[in-house]
Amino acid sequence: MNGVDEGRMNREQDAKRVLKEYFGFTAFRPGQEELIDAILEGRDVMAVMPTGAGKSLCYQIPAVLMEGITVVISPLISLMKDQVNALVEAGIEAAYLNSSLDGAAYAETLRGLAQGQYRLLYIAPERLLRDDLLAQIGDIPIPLVVVDEAHCVSQWGHDFRPSYLQIAAFIRSLHDRPRVAACTATATTKVKEDILRLLDLKEPLSLTTGFDRQNLYFGVERPSHKSEALLEYLAKHRGQSGIVYCSTRKRVEEVAELLCSHGFAAARYHAGLEDRERHGNQDDFIYDRKTIMVATNAFGMGIDKSNVSFVIHYNMPKNIESYYQEAGRAGRDGEKAECILYYSGQDVRINTFLITNGADAEERDDELVQHNLELLKQMTFYATGSECLRSRLLAYFGESSPHYCGNCSACNTLYEEIDATVEARKILSCVYRLKERNRAFGKTMIIDILRGSKSEKIRSQGFDTLSTWGIMADTTAQRIRAILDRLLDQGYLVMDEGEYPVVHLAPRSGEILTEKKSFVVKLPRPQAEKPEKVSARSGSGAGLPIGLGSADGQGGAFSVTKIIEAQDARPVDEDLLEKLKALRRDLARKGGVPSYVVFSDAALRDMCVKLPENRDAFLAVSGVGEVKQKKYGDVFTALIREYLADRERD
Ligand code: ADP
Ligand code: MG
């Protein structure tokens, strides 16, 4: 074996050892091993991986293995404490420097730094140059600087932070240039280019892992009353932890109040709250004192709470990137979780308004406004289309995928392909006849005319004399709307998004109206019943709707199988799981840390499967490293032994 291979093998062994010893995991996730190896080899890296994919380990493991101290630049000081707590729990010395520390704690941390006590130091970007970190660290080498949430350096990203622009200068000021690792979940080309350039990465290993999160279910709903839909959903998911995102502070207030008045343990979060309340509410959520967080998009970056079971968007975000990042906060521990978007046309109008007239629109150039409008269009497309939602998301991130995932609302609603040419022609004619009278209206009015409404509004304007009045009297409004939406989607009609959005003919309208082109679309079956969930999970694929997935060629069939596996959560004894959770809660409370810092839900589930009765068996549980085994092994195995003995007796 030559020296290069040998070096690599040693590095791999070291990395594996740390993975088990400290973090309690036996296998790397996609991309982790390559990134760790590149860092250990001395290279810069750029890791583009979805939220929850496990970016932290990619730099924490090298930090354990390398001489000196790894500096982690992270945007949210309020969360550094939790990240450091989690490392300390795993047996890795770490500290943070930010304004929340009082004088004594600050001095204490500096002392520890000077003595080389820590493997990792978390720091906010604002402090890098100001605090003259170098003078504090003295001779201790800095082998690695990590820039977490690296997209914050880019104007094109969604969380631009001017202070991130100082990072390159900080790195240049270091005596020996460290390796630089940039981590982000944002994958667009513009943002990636900015990261490379503005952080001055040197020939980095740039690794983008698949963006698919198989444990997440994606859904889009159009409830006529969002509040009722939400209450109904939460009632079915009582006790589970979740986030409800709203687009404005006002809406956050309303929804939080609504939930509390219905007896749900909900907290609120937005930038308009006093710091104290905001932090307090965030802690209530992280420490599971409140199960539901109602928040604007100000909440969440850097939140590593792993047991979030659902993320509901009460309003549609401005773009798919933000949506995927926010939704991706569900199911970080790999457990099944749901991401649901409540769509309404109103959301599109509000977002358009914010982009074109919003607070920061004036300082921004037209190009950026246009760019953002284009992104909004794609988001709207996601919400209103009829194709597999997962494939739409992945397509946005440049990944191809089969058009059937079996785990989204589009795939779970049975669609039928219908020839809607006649209906389409009727709808287009109606718009055409209105145009002849120099009038244009929104969807609802068009539908009313087609269905022959005799309302005052219609009669007073004489629309009941239009030749298209009542020509679709026997079609449901819902169905006309669905066809109208498809005509808009496919550019046979256009929507003028003014104050009162109105529908116009498009250059393409003629293809159907006069050239007799047919219009075939996929529409939900009338009164479609949801297929039994079992069908996609049965493992055989036999329950899949005909012609989907398996007929899709190799790629399709393969992916469907993979998804079935991912969903095939092992059944566990819920009684025992509850007991383990209660024990975890007590220990977390005593230790002053969030529950998930003690053990993730995934680890507790693995305990239910492996039923470890002694320390050695306990070490085999996923998520149990040596320090946690020593700290918690006895109490957890005692509980499990007692539980099993009780069960014997019954
Ligand atoms: P990201 O920063 O990419 O959003 P994190 O680093 O916070 O994600 O990791 C998300 C979750 O995945 C954490 O709970 C972490 O413990 C878990 N995790 C990371 N790597 C592994 C692995 N190799 N095996 C099992 N769990 C892992
Ligand atoms: Mg992270």
TrEMBL record:
EC number: 5.6.2.4
Coiled-coil boundaries: none
Pfam families membership: DEAD (PF00270), Helicase_C (PF00271), HRDC (PF00570), RecQ_Zn_bind (PF16124), RQC (PF09382)
Keywords from the named record: ATP-binding, DNA damage, DNA recombination, DNA repair, DNA-binding, Helicase, Hydrolase, Isomerase, Metal-binding, Nucleotide-binding, Zinc
GO BP term, pick one: SOS response
Helicase ATP-binding domain boundaries: 36-205
CDD domains, per the entry: DEXHc_RecQ, SF2_C_RecQ
Similarity section: Belongs to the helicase family. RecQ subfamily.
Name of the protein in question: DNA helicase RecQ
